[in-house]
Amino acid sequence: MKSLVRVLLSVLFLAAGALPAAAAPAARPPGPAPAATSATAPAPAADTAWTPPLSTRGRYVVDARGERFRLRSGNWDGAQGSWNGSGDRTDPATHHSGQDSHGIPLGLDRVPVPALLADFRALGLNSIRLPFSNEMLHTTAPVPDAAVAANPALRGRTPLQVFDAVVAALTDAGFAVILNNHTGTTRWCCGLDGNERWNSGRSTAQWADDWVSVARRYRDNPRVVGADLYNEVRRDTWDDPNWGLGDGHDWQAASQEAADRILTEANPDLLIVVEGINWTGIPLDGLPHERPTLTPVRTLSHTLVVSGKLVYSAHFYGYTGPRHSGATGLGETHDPRYQDMSRAQLEQTLYDQAFFVSAETGTHFSAPVWISEFGIGADETGAAPRAWFQNLTSYLAGSDADFAYWPLVGWSTTAQGAPGGDSWALLRYDSTGRRSGALDPADWRTAPLTALTTAPGRTGRVPATPAWYQLSTDHRDHNASLRTRASGDWDSGARKAVCPDGARLTGLAHTGGRGLCTTSDLRAPAGGHTVVRDEAYVPPGGDWAGGYTKLQCPAGQFLIGYSLRGERVSAALCAPARTALPPAAGRTLWFDRGDNRPPGAGGGDFARGHYKGQCAPTEYAAGIAFTTRAASRPSPAALLCRPLVYGLSEVAINGGDASSGDRSATVRVAA
User: Using 50, 70 and 90 to split pLDDT, how confident is the model at 655?
Assistant: First the structure.
């Protein structure tokens, strides 16, 4: 074990992330993902002609008018830390690329802020990903005067106060700002640095507390539009992060918890950016290891208490790979890097590991995907990495993707004027403030980046379309309704799941406790809910599931939630409709012996590996049936599905497969 620890300490140089390696069931042909239908036009230069706050509609980020806002972003790093972890912190040589950021955004020692922002705009950017560390939030010592030499008005301020000034300058200039909790300590990533997980060195609750504090701090600035929850979640020496296991390393659960707290306690207008898992396993041939990124989202996605706020994120660098950590020498595995792939292989890999989330619309996991880090050096001469960068930027342009280059600002000389600094930065400044980089035609990256920032894409208003939400009671309650939360615990001791406000329950799994919701304006604006624990609302002669216990909503109400005790159904949660519902008996949808979902219905597989049922889009769910007979599972077995509109024919709504033995899938009377 000691030798294994030595190997880990030597080789877990988990480079700034890329995309993972699990095959997605639905692949698409090679080539850039097609831009969605609608008007396209060349992307305009960054300007202030957008209206906050930002939200999402399907795969797009939109502004308050419903107009597409493509995130053309750069990472202005520094406030997350630059110290490499050894040597004197005051010596620039011990900092990344010899650049001591002093825990504030880079470049403030060399260039006045207005000049920096003008250069950002010249690059065609409209938004900035602004990393910070938890340590920065609590540091009380002022930054050295030298750290802000080009901006003397910032002298004597703490790192957080400098950060405040940068945020204000960016937003005053019209940029959208997405805050990114990059590290816990102001130390450069990405190995065994104490910044592996959101809860490295702190509890999940403490981490979420910091996020609530930050979100409140900028609540009155509407151009602070997003909270990027944590950067590149990865393994430490001993333990992997996971997606959905319910333990202290469950990133899916922790990000859901922090997101809901931010939206309820701080600012309901913020976009919530959730990055996939950057690394699991030990990077040695013969041992399990991979970069999962967004592949787990297909099975378990996020449903937030405020809908239309979720963005998923992935990072991609050529020197890493789906199963390659980016290490060289000791610890380098024989897995391919992304830059080793052909263009077709790269595009298919990108789709399988990230872009399926935005390309497969109308599923519970559909959301915008933001490639919030990618980059390469201006001094790169290798044919393979250069080809990778060309192929990646071409794919991002062709798929009309949201993106953020890493990094935006860096040095081109040491403090003494000798050549140095970070060749990856798009904008490099010497000790006198003179600029070089991607705004200069001599930089080989200029052409592909210009093609990306000016690529035609979706513009104008994005119409609202039905959205789908997954409910999960795997390890805890999943109450996504603010109205229901305000009413207290409606079934104490049971695991409860409730659709977001503005949605109705449309599907259930026979086992596993998962459910599916879809957007709906059916709920009355006033009035509470009804908890149904017995057959009190089943009318005489209305036995729609003979021999089964039926939890049926009262007349004029529909299902928004359910609860379980173990596997057994405990209660149904119903809400009153805003208008009269058709007086139809409905149909019984059995799903205890197979899948019974309408062909072509939205939502996707919301309970992979489990039998499930789903009402048609033209129906609402009004009841749950289950049995407590010996040798039978007491879990949901059938739904009562009723038509949403008067006069709807049975043929129009009965698209489900009645493959449930000799039981009829339809016992309804005509509307």
Answer: very low
